[in-house]
Protein: Aldehyde dehydrogenase family protein
Organism: Microbacterium kribbense
Amino acid sequence: MTTLLEDIQAPAGSGRPITDPATGEEIGRTPTATVDDLDKAIAAARAAQPGWTALGDATRVELMNKAADAIEQYAEELAVLLSREQGKPLNGPNARFEVGACVAWLRAATVPDVSPQIVIDDGETRAEVHYQPLGVVGAIGPWNWPMMIAIWQIAPNLRMGNTIVVKPSEFTPLSVLGLVHVLNTALPDGVLIAVAGGRDVGEAMAAHTGIDKIMFTGSIPTGQAIIRSSADTVKRVTMELGGNDAGIVLDDADPAEIAQKLFWGAFINTGQTCAALKRLYVPDGLYDAVCDELTEVARAVPMGVGLSEENLLGPVQNRKQYDIVSSLVEDARTSGARILVGGDPDPDAAGNFYPTTLVADIDNDNPLVAKEQFGPALPIIRYTNLEQAIEWANGLDVGLGASVWSSSPKRARDVALRLHAGTVWVNEHGTIDPRVPFGGAKGSGYGVEFGREGLLECAQAVSVKGPAGSFTEEES
């Protein structure tokens, strides 16, 4: 019996090597798809789409749940592959967690009611809204949560009758190829196709006349390029772009009580999460206590090779991102900021390990605060009055998430509603839920995912309207 990796990787001597960011060892070879391969995949998905739609909602739901069963069957093999390729540890909110989230999101997408809605039936007029498939959807994913975000893109489209062509990140193609392989043990041929190619494949997908919608999660510059490329074909787009999430601690918070949640809000996936806490505003009266509590937590959380069961933090996934984090921290140190913990990586260590780093006494306009670091470094900014903190939190052109930390629910909610972000958490950060719509404000993108709202973004709303009695509910 072959392993999952053997089933999906390129034959010996072909493809491109993929290395473990924790050790530098080659773990497998990814196929290298071309634009011609993309064309063939889109044609196959286009041919399969009418039949997938014709199965009906109930059958699609049944097959989606069977696909979720298949993920559970392969869960450990998928988690190990993910850990080796992305670097995240097996335990904690990491590889096994991500595979479990794939199952949860896939099943959650089968629950909302997406049947036609009667919006007027007053004896004079009848109007209904029906939700029909768009056709073929192109999904371009990132390297930080490659499997989970692929499911965020795949699941709603499966439910709504679309077929999907997935292009994984060049850094983490094997885990997505493995996930798609597993899903396809339950799905009809051509419904879901993965094309592991380079930037040219992504660019071609964005402009392709055979793609009806693009879903993208990644950086703002790449998202902007995709939007421009998609304009000529007026295809629909959902963009979940970068964030630089602010958290505001109010003066009635308990530093010891919130420290663990603050830490994991910032350092989940070793800080490599779009909706992670990336800049923390703390009032004068609590500043030293919050710094002390966070430092104590940071020193206690083990970092290392993901396959070692004791580790909860891993390496930065690629050297380019490692260098960005390192440069921002060094610039902060040079500017006079105080490094509470971390900030001194071992230059001789194997892998892309950057230590868990907390930076205090830093100005709000420092690049470590103003730019998205996307790694294991958190700046902690002191504020004197709450209005100042809110102004700083809202001062950037991104707004994916934000959080407020307080012992008073009313105060927290009042502040939350003044923050410019798609999601604002209270006394937690980044705890997304498949039932709750998720999307960005400002430069962090547009369109929402999850819940019924996310499903409907993957469909064409068709309004059917006429005089009462001109058609009946049974006919419609």
About this structure: The longest strand covers residues 125-133. Residues 4-241 form a domain with the Aldehyde Dehydrogenase; Chain A, domain 1 fold (CATH 3.40.605.10). The CA atoms of residues 53 and 430 lie 34 Å apart.
